[in-house]
Amino acid sequence: MYISRNLVALLALWSPTQLCLAIEKVSFSSSEGVQYIENRFIIKYENTAAGKKAKQSILDSPDKGITLVNEISNLHIQSVSFPSATAASDFLEKQGEGVRYFEEDSMVYLDPVPTTDPQSQNLAETTPYGINHVKALDVPDDNSGNRKVCIVDSGYDINHPDLPSDGSIVTGESFGGVGSWNTDGSGHGTHVAGTVAAIGGNGIGVKGVIRNGQVKLHISRVFPDSGGTSTFNVIAGFNSCVDNGANVVNMSLGGGGYIQSFAEAIENAYDDGILILASSGNSGDGTINYPASYPHVMSVASITESYTLSSFSTYNNLVDISAPGSSVYSTVPGGSYSYLSGTSMASPHAAGVAALVWSHSPSLENSELENILQTTARDLGTSGRDDFYGHGLVDAKAAYDALDLSAPTVSPVAAPVACSSSEVLVEVYIKTDSRPRQIRWKVYNVDTQSIIVEENSYSSSDRNLEFTYEVCVDSATCLQFEITDSVGDGICCEHGDGAYSVTYDGAVVDEGEDNFDSVHTSPTFGCDSSPTGFPIASPTASPVTCVDSPIDMAYTDGPSDVYLPCSWVETFASACLCDDENVRSHCPLTCDSCDEYRCEDSTALFYAEGLTLDCEELYGFTPGQIGRICRDVIARETCRSLCGVCD
């Protein structure tokens, strides 16, 4: 557990028992020099009923000093301001079961070093030295329209004549009340964007790594015109990159402490196939800086025009690569240009190269591209990777040459599957959303649990594509389909229009465009040679046997909970107890109420698996879950209508 200096007082308020809970639920930073925001916390909730309850408790809190600052709903994250450390401690004590991480928010800053005052529009176009250093002009940018670069920064001057402005090319959002995304009071974001994508061949200004004006940009503005922003706002901006389909994310910023919620968001984005880069920092020493030092982030150091390390460039064992960052000439608001220095200027060189190279092989995995960029970098400093230059200067031409651009082998079209007379055809149709790596599915034998067909290895290149799978199965096999999402946001809605359907012997047995939490299970099918969501009793000429429920009834209205079996009603209770509908429906054999309740659910509360519930609650489960529940004789003899015992 990471414990910060600001949380010593908070931890001192907790009892040993509460502290044990905190060790499981809380992650704090101990980074030196981090500016924490007093009593403001980033809270990530569990995606469970307890998590929803904890989140709602913030909104319903009678303590008016507890303020919801902002929320990222699809990540289950809130920024919450507490009036005191005691109030924060009380919240954790009451709601700790639903809290995954409870972390101090901190300030993040832009820290470029201005070199000259802004200059007016150039009369002729200039190629900044950095573009030549990374050999961007040696790689065609004809395919760049298939890549999207997201810039988390201070905004974007949409009216700059040397930057793309078409709404089909440039999109954006702003966070934390900092102003519109398509304006930029500080100029930092516009400068970064120019290095990535300033238009070449127009006779003015500068040219970027990608010059044709076709690479897609998404701008996440998280900084005001001056000063810093919160780590929470940066997480929100980063999440916008992911939600808007970015392939490459650039974060030329730093200064915040380690935040587990941010690290997890980055890990999920990387798993979704996104390449993430950030400036290593401008401390000029070995400081560990975030977000550059998170796992799955390429940390970019800065070099000068003479290929030496910039004096301000942060160095450590997490630096991955280097790029030009000293006296970089690029676009600034108002149609102007300026020199700025900083690892902030180095990172967009590397991000631009990543997008440029990737555009020629978009099926490449982000991890493969990352490896190519590192192994083809021009070695600087001591031989091999070092803490100052990482693997060396990013080299677009060498990375491009390392791609396998040979024509892919075209597989022959598969012939239709022909099943034998004792088999039936099962067909699974999947349309992925924009996060295919999260999707896993299978069709399995209900009785043996053996898998008939499955897919658990979609890649980032499988985004928003359609797949069909066919398999022949013995007609006597009882089957079920299960689809899971590793993050818990389903296959549709927030990340595209994914869908699924399962066909058994020509009949659709399950389909949907579900925004399920983590898993969706179909009804069972093929269990009686026809699709069905529930087990069906064997045909019989005689009426269904009337039985008492074998599970105890639960009485919870008294001073203590009491659990009564039907046998107790029969042996010890008077007949008048059967006047109670709950007892009569739960124990129809004992109460001589078979005509009324032989086929109906018990209305009583009962105690099962440590929970008090009733049959009505089970109707909220999916058909597949109900089918599994009803295979248990206890469930069938209690929730008789739900399980279709008389059907």
Q: Can you tell me the residue ranges where pLDDT is under 50 for at least 5 consecutive residues?
A: 1-30, 529-543
Mean pLDDT: 85
Strand content: 15-25%
- Which CATH architecture of the largest domain would you pick? 3-Layer(aba) Sandwich
Number of strands: 27
Write down the domain tally. 4
What about the largest sheet? 7 strands, parallel
How far apart, in Å, are the first and last alpha carbons?
Answer: 56 Å
Spatial extent as radius of gyration: 31 Å
CATH topology of the largest domain: Rossmann fold
The share of residues in helices is: 10-25%
Structural category is: alpha+beta
Physical arrangement of strands within the biggest beta sheet: 7-8-6-10-11-12-13
What is the topological layout?
Layout: H1 8-13, H2 16-25, E1 36-45, H3 49-60, E2 67-72, E3 77-81, H4 85-95, E4 99-108, E5 113-114, H5 129-133, E6 148-153, E7 170-174, H6 188-197, E8 216-221, E9 229-230, H7 231-243, E10 248-251, H8 260-271, E11 275-279, E12 298-303, E13 319-324, E14 328-332, E15 336-341, H9 343-358, H10 366-375, H11 396-401, E16 423-431, E17 439-445, E18 451-455, E19 466-474, E20 479-485, E21 499-504, E22 507-512, E23 519-521, E24 553-555, E25 562-564, H12 566-571, H13 581-586, H14 594-597, E26 606-608, E27 611-613, H15 615-618, H16 623-630, H17 633-636
Parallel strand pairs: 6-8, 6-10, 7-8, 10-11, 11-12, 12-13
Antiparallel strand pairs: 1-3, 1-4, 2-3, 4-9, 5-15, 14-15, 16-19, 16-21, 17-18, 17-20, 20-23, 21-22, 24-25, 26-27
